Amino acid sequence: MSNYVVGLIIVMYLAMLFVLAYFAEKNPRGKWTNNPYVYTLSLAVYCTAWTYYGSVGIASRSGISFLAIYLGPVISLPLWIVVMKKVIRISKQHKISSIADFISMRYGNNRFLGALVTITCLLAIIPYISLQLKAVSETFSLISTENSYVSTGFLDDSTFYIALLIAVFVAFYGTRSTDTSQHKKGIIATVAFESVLKLLFFLAIGIYVTYYLFDGTTDLYEQASMRNNFHQLTSLGGLENGFNWLFTICLSFFAIFLLPRQFHVAVVENDNENYLKKAIWLFPLYLLLFNLFVIFIAWAGNIRLPDVVNHDYYSLLLPLQQNNQGLVLMVFIGGFTAVISMIVVSTLALSTMVSNNIVIPYGFIKKLVEGNPEENTKRIKNIRRVAIFFLIVIAYFFYVNFSAQLSLFSIGLISFVLIAQLAPSFFLGLTWRRGTARGAEIGILVGVAVVFYTLLLPFISQVIMPNVKFVEEGLFGYSWLKPAQLFGLDYLTPESNAFLWSLSFNTLFFVGFSLRNKGNYRERNYAEMFVNHANYENLQEGAFVWKGEAYVADIKRLLSRFLGETRTNRALRVFNKKHNISDAEEKADARLINFSEKLLTGSIGSASAKILLSSVSKETPISLVEVLNILEESKETKANNKLLFEKSEQLTAMAHQLKEANEELLLQDRQKDEFLDTVAHELKTPITSIKAASEVLEDDDMPPELRKQFLENISRDTDRLDTLIHNILDLEKLSDNRTELDIKKRKINKTIKKAIKGVEQIAAKKQVGIEFTERENLEVPFDEDRILQVLTNLLSNSLKFTEPHTGTIKIHLEDGDKALRVSVEDNGRGIPVEDQAYIFDKFYQSKNQNTKKPQGSGLGLAICKKIMEGHKGSIWVDKGFKKGARLVFELPKSRN
Amino acid sequence: MKKILIVDDEPNIVMSLEYAFKKKDFGVFIARDGTEALEIAEREKPDLILLDIMMPQMDGYETLKRIRESENLGQTKVVFLSAKSKEKDIEKGLKMGADGYMTKPFSIKKIISDVEEMIT
Known about the structure:
The complex is a heterodimer. Chain A is mainly alpha-helical.
């Protein structure tokens, strides 16, 4: 294929990505770009040229150990539901835009730590990007027919131009907004699309090799098994190899969390944490499919191709050998796709880190403070664009000068080992609140130094000083200092060796320094928020602990430099409204400081945001106890807010009840007043009568019969007074439940007969008959004296209201299941319907009494009612009885 | 001879009052409730009515109102005679147009002297 055709295809392909990104950006909320599948596919940026070409190379030389690098992510994915969810929530809440920002914020927006993480990532990723470029360049020259042509400098090297085009793409779609926490739909859409392409094309070549060049997997296996190194290629190896496997799995386990590009696609670009649920099974499936044919392509290459060719490119060389141009081009595009997505996301993530964690906090902050919003926006964007080009150009020159003799696999592993140095501060930072910035800094520094000594130094010394023998003999001749076999462990691969020792020292120093030094309150504040995130995630501004003095006007001025006047005003208005703060408030509180930090973090990174805000505020250090107290308080406030709503509803309900209770009380009060009035009236009447009579009795001329009459009146009124007082006291006693009823099982028959006997005389005098249908042996529990009182009362009432001679009173017993019923009926004038409901009230007297009212205290029936209540029974008027009055009471048979 | 109407539902009280006023040569009429009182008042046109307040059927207030409405009873004085002895009860009674208010229990001598003062 001619160089120009391949070049044209590459340019066309890149143009297509531009168009795809354009449409994705145009409709950022479309369902094509917002779904768990795009999210999962964007995670597949993990599969780079290393996967696409390098795995085959490893498989052809050392068998199935290439799989270890995919087992780590697969093992870690179920953990995502817990860990990633937490990381995503924290990142969204704090507008975190990169792994460097995340770690720097966890340790109190530490500027140095952010820069350190960024530099570590640069060290790890730039060589990796160069390797991707190398893969493009090598595959390009493999498929181009003009082999005689050798490039003499970068200006006529096609790889350089491809790199520049990629840089333009990233710069264009990656810096549209200054807020880096905003999602870049265009880039993610192209990454997802490329993930589909590279998988499809790799599966295609796998199927082609396995089923077209060979007769399926069995045929391949049989042919491969005849080769002499076959056993070594298919076994796992001994214990030493087991360690290597373990360490590689660990490496990739960390990498899937910590690689800047993985953090970017998994956390920063995440739209919805529920996507994780799909991703945890879809992504392993993707990795499985990707690795399905690796081993077969490797075997086929070993069988068909001469050993001198680069094993990494078997998948390209096999169709090339068959002169299948279409397939060759497809495989090349697939690999190119894997390269582009990796470089795009990596440079995007790295450029954000470089600008937000190094350039702005260390160099530009002063300039930005002085600039106006438009200038600042432009400046920030330009810093990022320059960073993007800078990164790609450095990667390009690294590739030109260094990477000639390294395989994709080993550079990939070095990169992973370096990235793994972030693991202690990242993972322990999420779970251990004692971790401090100092610990993290020293841990990472020591870890990187160990990696440098064990992995990079041998490589550099090979290139620069091939005569120095310290790699073989150890530093200063001490064999335990041999870089690749540190402390005499000689069975590990150099990468496993480096991983083991760097991470051990890293963790040791991290934990050691964290324990020695408690860190400032800011670190402890963030530690609490990150570790105990579930408790504080709803608090937002409230969880931030800050003590000091700052003016809203200063903060406003600062914010408008970056966000512009309108956005700042809008943001503050919303903030004030949300927290119920007056717009006229002059002093800023912790919530505003934190809110502003968050607003700025998206644009310039957390460390710079902190520096900027501390330039306009005077912060006072506070003790750990205060921090914890404030956190607790804000937690409570939040909980209280939630409770308040419920409480206010309860209060409303309670107020309603109170009002009702009050009305009830007022009614009772009124009733009490009325009762007292009535009592007074009822008492005064006989007293008046007695007094008047005794006055007229002073008259000596009064005839004796009249005198006798007056004296009798006095006597009767005195009796009436006595009964009244007795009844009032009795009723009060019954109302207060002060009287103990002497309730025992007794024969009701006996009691009724006693009651009849008590009124017999009066009845006989009035010639009113009393009939009682006796029922022997009916026993119920009751207080005999009280029931006697009830019966007497009912009988006296009947006697009062029946006519002489014609009157009859009948007493009936009715034996029910649960209660015994006693009714007393008469043929008197009956009780008017409108009075029936009230006759048991105290002193109730019918309004319709058209005759002289009969004698009585007006308390009899009220007392009867109280007595029946004391028996847990009841008393009522039989409304259906029309021939007179019938009052019924019921005594329960069981006392409960 | 001055005519006096006693309205009360308590026979024992009425009995004492009746005896005492008759002794002083008043023409005494008795009513047991408001309706009966209006009837007798229209017929006899008494100089003064001693009116109880708490009575069945028509209470004292209502009876007073009807008396004041009657054209024939313009000259009749009405004095409440009640066990309701609270300040506000007395005020209410006088406001309704009673010429006097006496509380129970009372002194018969005092009532007679007050009545004599009012109608002579």
